[in-house]
Input
Amino acid sequence: MDNKRFFSKILLFGEYGIMSNSDAISLPFKEFYGYLNNSESIDYKTQVSNSKLIELYQFILNSDAKDLISIKDFKNDLDTGLHFVSNIPISSGLGSSGALVASIFHKYRKKNSIDFQIEEIKNLLSIIESKFHGKSSGLDPLVSFLNKPILYSNQKIKLLDQIIYNDFKVFIIDSQIDSSTKKMIKIFQNKMNNLEFKNFFTNQFIKNNNDCINNLRLNSSLFKGSIKQLSEITFDNFQEMIPDNIKSIWEKGLKNNSYYMKLCGSGGGGFFLLFDFENRVNYEFSEFTLFEI
Output
């Protein structure tokens, strides 16, 4: 087994909006990764991972993906101790399940899937990842599989070069609270049943999200204003997705204009994004774990 690494991902923009055809940018984050491995001696951690892969195997058997995966090879490796070695934090919003799905697809996809278009690969990956989240866009495993930043716009995928941050830095900050994507998506779906929220989300949130993406890609001076606005409307309308220990520092950034925060995926816990415009974050957040991206 080649032990090829599949990296975690960061959804820079597009949280929840991607479910309503907004634009999104997602990128691989190489601080965390995972890979498939076989082992004759199985300890407890390896056994747990192996059993989870068996569950995934059984799920694939009953899905539309079964004809494109080498089921026999997958099962043979499971019987000899196949497991996933990973340092990607679980329930953190960094795509641990996406990296796992990408590794399975890379290792066991049949030759007739090699010439698939990117959109076809994304759709197949979304089927497999739905085992973990109930509903998946397929974007997380696609980023891990391709190991490139992706722009998703008008239901089309464009591979991007390295994203440049001019005059600011971007961090992820660990809330130290587990997040449940399924739970957060359920909360969001319930919020969308409210006509006022649905109108806000469709007419304001998605537009603001897309403005941030456009301004970032154009290296526009308007980016700071657009990310501040996105941070404000997220704070005002997604309170359920922001843990109490993050709310105070989120508000502080909005007041002093030195940094702005936003969700990193579904929220509720895990990591959050922080855009630092005055290079003060490392001094002000000593009690948190941060990673620069």
